[in-house]
Amino acid sequence: MEPEAGWGAAAAVVEADQVSLAPQEDRELSSLTGFFRTLYEVLFRPGEFFKNLGREGWAGPTAFALIVSSVGLLSALFWQFLVLAPAGGNLGDIGALLPFQGLGPGLLLAMMIASPVLVLANLGVGGICWWGSVALVGAGRDFTPAWRIFCYAQAGMALAIIPFFGLLVAGIWVLVLMYCGVKQVYGISVGGSLGALIIYLALQVLLGLTLLLGLMGVLAGLGFLLVLG
Is 184 left (phi over 0), alpha (psi -120 to 50) or beta? Predict the structure, then answer.
């Protein structure tokens, strides 16, 4: 069986007996031990982790991503809430440096409560965009391997616990881990891996603009109806 040709290089075919389970998926380890061992390996030994990562199974990676991303988002929201609440939501020029600028304490608190739902939605949309990006560079069309890379790359969200600017650092590190993951799991070239990352970011921007324009259209329509009323 020959690997699919892709942009920059051919994708590697990894045999099942050449890979090992992520600690998160190892039933011989407790859930807590598996989680923290996986987090450590992805953050500090990503090359080795993704090189040995199997391609089957979605439940373990999904649970891992949901937990670490929820904790990361909660942390980022908490640090900003901690500063905004005593200031009555007005920080002047300092507020412009925070990741959720313009959001009042009430809205921040609501987002904290809804963080698991927000994270799940983000994982779903982001995972599909990542799968499409990987497929477009010719690395492979199977959804599960791309999903596993995307979920385990969310380990970078653990850095969001850093006060105030952690979310920015976490976002950058997630992208680095995604690059490392696609390069190691599929065995494609640096150009192909960067290509997948660029396509992913372009899809995210396009999706964001589409949602923004759609929201503006809805608001404009509601305003028009109010005028007519």
Answer: alpha
Measure the CA dihedral 112/117/123/126, to 10°: -90
Written as six digits, the tokens of 221 are 């329509």
Provide the pLDDT for residue 103.
Answer: 63
Each residue's pLDDT tens digit, 179-206: 999 999 998 999 999 999 999 999 999 9
User: Binning pLDDT at 50, 70 and 90, where does residue 155 land?
Assistant: very high
Residue 186's closest CA among 49, 5, 2, 14? 14
Q: Closest by alpha carbon to 39, among 177, 172, 156?
A: 156
Cα 67 to Cα 17: distance, rounded to the nearest angstrom: 29
* Choice among 59-68, 140-149, 161-170, 199-208 with the minimum mean pLDDT: 161-170
Among residues 163, 147, 152, 81, which one has the least CA distance to residue 115?
81
- Most confident listed range (1-5, 9-13, 36-40, 88-92): 36-40
| Token pair for 126 | 């982001």
CB neighbours of residue 56 within 10 Å: 12
Helix ranges, the chain (H): 31-44, 46-51, 59-87, 105-113, 115-136, 143-153, 166-186, 190-228
DSSP designation for 24: G
